[in-house]
Amino acid sequence: MIEGFIPWPKDLSEEYVFNGYWRNIPLGQELDNIAEIFPSRVALVLNEEKITYSQLKETTDQLAVSFIERGIRSTDRVIVQLPNILEFVYCYFAFLKIGVIPVMCMPPFRKTEIEHIATKSMAKGYVIPDLHRKFNFLELAQEISETVSSIEKVFVAGHDCYDGQFLIKDLLAKEYNREEIEATLKKCRPDPFEPAVFLLSGGTTGLPKIIPRTHNDYLYMANMAGLNLGVNKDTVYLAIAPLVHNMTLACPGLMGTLFRGGKVILTTVTDSENLCKVIEKEKITHIPLVPALILNLLNFDKRDDYDISSLQVIISGGSKLNPEVAKRVKPEVGSDLVQQFGMAEGLLAQTQIDDVDEIKFNTVGRPVSPADQIKIVDDEGNEVQPGETGELYCRGPYTIRGYYAAPEHNKNAFTKDGFYKSGDMFKLVPQSGCLIVEGRKKDLINRGGEKINCEEIENLVLSHPKVDNAALVAMPDPVMGEKACIYVTLKQKEEFTLAELNEFLLEKRIAKFKLPERLEVIEQFPLTTVGKISKKHLRRNIEDKVREESKEPNKGCEKSEVI
Ligand code: OOB
């Protein structure tokens, strides 16, 4: 086992294998299995490019060997920071085939986040686009290779690269002998009990934590998610949110669709017009959307100009869906709605297509595996009465037993008997066993599914010379659900603006979506009985303000953008 990874207890692992949950198949091997069954079916589409399963198998085999030739070996970690392009899928499966662990980084991450994650994961490689959304990743990678000593190789998806970096298209241009490839890959077959992928947590404290997902557990979860949603060879799944995110990668996502013989359409556009265009063109059947995008689609006035009748299921997840919005999906869009609650750490709950409306509109359904164990507990960790609200604890065949190389943090994040303390508040409906999201205990902001870690931003704000103390809280937003509002006290009475603060924060080179969208300068922080800043009071304060302002014309009507 790689150092820093906490496996499941041995007896449980054996039980999961015995019960058929863990099939002992590496993720890359599963792709090859499907390619053997459906060689000529289309697996991937990006704009006008169509890739069949056999092409995907061959491309990923070849790339895997190319990576080995460049010194990337089993158990090495490689940062993958690509948008939804074909090279993402090629690199992802190529790494999986040789036991190299891709570390999934969001495209908006900048120097601060990448430096931290590369250092923590001791990454040897870094995969980037050359240019994406006008940002020069070549330069970023150059800097990262200078500051993080473990990074030896940079691989670039695109046409340009700096000296010393490798273009993926060049890696794919070399001709290999089929037998040689097979022989090399056979020697590198990964152990399915080992971590296959490193995901990142939205985090509760500080910078993101690393989540090791094994071949066995990730394959199981992706398949269960696909099975529950009726994914099959006729499914056309739109990968619209970043593929580096667990939801688009495996719930059922890219993997849950490919492993059941379906077709995955890649896109990076999220506006409703383009969404409708691609649904019509590709006859999309399944589409995952965060609630903010569902609302945009429902309110899109030109929807009837497009034929989107192919759409069978909209899968909502990432943040809470308002039941009033949920009710509108079927009558207005014509497709079924499935709600899902997921987390990179593991547990996935989903409603089912044939659930009654009451369950579909108000709950996130039930965990996808019969072996998932969940508890709803009070502040002391004792189970609450059925139907009462409490924090969700979970463990099971695809929920991690510990963050990677984080022993101190793990002590607080898990119970002694291996339950993960989710930090999410839930109510369990006793009759149906369905879960209702009631809120959150952990200190983060959920901006339309994108997670902002409060402590991380507060620490940066505190380094501003004018700021004395700072607290970041969620403010309600009609589209995004939540946005970040920063409360500060100043060292001196002077002018301080949001623009000034954000300029300072951007100099710290963090992802843009984390920037506060409102600044409140106050004289004094409200305190709890133990003298800590009372975020409860601040949240109530900003909620009241936003409510009052929304009554005034011309206030609170800015357009929200999903970044
Ligand atoms: C998904 O994964 P993460 O790791 O980005 O974020 C997990 C957190 C949860 O702990 C919860 O706070 C929130 O996101 N969340 C929801 C939710 N789904 C996730 N909060 C309310 N309602 C929901 N339906 O976000 C994720 C991973 C896989 C599938 C779907 C979402």
Question: Mind sketching the topology for me?
Answer:
Blueprint: H1 10-18, H2 27-37, E1 42-46, E2 49-52, H3 53-69, E3 77-80, H4 86-97, E4 101-104, H5 111-121, E5 125-129, E6 131-132, E7 135-136, H6 137-147, E8 153-157, E9 166-167, H7 168-173, H8 178-187, E10 195-200, E11 210-214, H9 215-228, E12 236-239, H10 246-250, H11 253-258, E13 263-266, H12 272-282, E14 286-289, H13 291-298, E15 313-317, H14 323-333, E16 336-343, E17 346-350, H15 357-362, E18 366-367, E19 373-377, E20 389-395, H16 407-413, E21 420-428, E22 435-440, E23 444-447, E24 450-453, H17 454-462, E25 467-477, E26 481-490, H18 498-507, E27 518-521, H19 535-551
Parallel strand pairs: 1-13, 3-4, 3-5, 5-8, 8-9, 12-13, 14-15, 15-16, 26-27
Antiparallel strand pairs: 1-2, 6-7, 10-11, 16-17, 17-18, 19-20, 20-21, 21-22, 23-24, 25-26
Helix pairs in contact: 2-3, 2-4, 3-4, 3-8, 5-6, 13-14
Walk me through the structure.
- The strands form eight sheets. A five-stranded parallel beta sheet has the order 4-3-5-8-9, sandwiched between helices. Strands 14-15-16-17-18 form a five-stranded mixed beta sheet. Strands 2-1-13-12 form a four-stranded mixed beta sheet.
- Residues 556-563 have low confidence and may be disordered.
- α3 (53-69) crosses α4.
- The radius of gyration is 23 Å and the shape is globular.
- The longest helix has 17 residues, at 53-69.
- By secondary structure, it is an alpha/beta fold.
- It has 19 helices and 27 strands.
- 34% of the residues lie in helices and 24% in strands.
- It binds 5'-O-[(R)-(benzoyloxy)(hydroxy)phosphoryl]adenosine (OOB).
- 5'-O-[(R)-(benzoyloxy)(hydroxy)phosphoryl]adenosine binds at residues 202, 246-247, 251, 317-320, 339-344, 364, 422, 424, 437, 440, 446, 449, 451.
